[in-house]
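Problem 12. The chain below contains 373 residues. Write out its predicted structure in token notation.
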Amino acid sequence: MAPAVLHLRSETKPFERRSPLTPTTAKKLLDAGYTINVERSPGRVFTDKEFEAIGATLVPEGSWVDVPKDHIIVGLKELPEDDAPLHHSHIQFGHCYKYQENWDRYLSRFARGGGTLYDLEFLTDDSGRRVSAFGYYAGYAGAAIALLAWSHQVVEPTPLPSIRKYPSATALLEDVNTSLTSALPHNNNQHPSILIMGALGRCGKGALDFCIAAGIPTSNLLKWDMEETADGGPFTQIAAVDIFINCVYLSTPIPPFITPASLAKPGRRLRVACDISCDPNSANNPMPIYRNYSTFNQPTLPVDVEGDGPPLTVISIDHLPTLVAREASEEFSGSLLPSLEGLNRRHEGGVWKRAEDVFRKKVAELPKDMVGE
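Solution.
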């Protein structure tokens, strides 16, 4: 079988700068015999010239729609809302397997067009572990925005302004350090106390690493995981810290970590809650204190809570790693590369066949009138 043609599309989600292929991994795929077509993109963290320099073919933005059906469309975030059938095989995050809002409408586009969704979240190895994830940098970026929000709210009780685009993780850390330096005199020169839920996972490690890099004393960091949460929530300790960062991904419901009632008790210190695993419309949401996503343009949302504590905001941005897009993309794409190199054998078994089986199972749950039968 001839090596596949991979078509890297330009992302359309606002502020999304990451890429599932980088110049480094694209070059390795070219060397393996694959054809790599890269859509020109004004927002991608890697420039068109970087891809052109390693031998990829640049094509117009949005051209994936009209390429031959056997080309594999590689992207990151879900496609714009549309009802047009999808005829290609797509590698991307679909966000439609956990019954999210309009999941059936999105998935039916593949079913009606004869396309296939290889959902990046469901690419797993033989043990069931994801082959590639953005968890570390989601935690890293979430902690950064949480510290920016806390610093801003300590100085003035107004919403955190929009987040700018950073060229690197180093530039982000410098900005956070500047904000903390300005905020500490307004907090008796005391650093914030931070509780990280899921601290032992990849996401939690990213959050912890950023906090330490930003100079938060280890004595101010509460690292919680399964042992600390074994008795089930809500947990009164969360209201007693300045910042709460949730790094726990849930596939089944559990007692919530916090509730409006648990936060309404006297003496609340909590100012910022960052839900890195944000899934506000899911029954599995362990933080039922908000219902909407925030964005980089509006990074915090106010939480309506009773009691005598300070104003409380929540961060619920669903693509946090794009804040450190270059580093996050390099790590993610590097982990994904061994699987991409096996795309030619995707129907024989392994990671791609497992992902296709999940897709077929979810399509089977669609109402018949949405499939076009």
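Discussion. The chain is about 30% helix and 10% strand. Students who got a different answer should revisit the alignment rule from Section 12.3.
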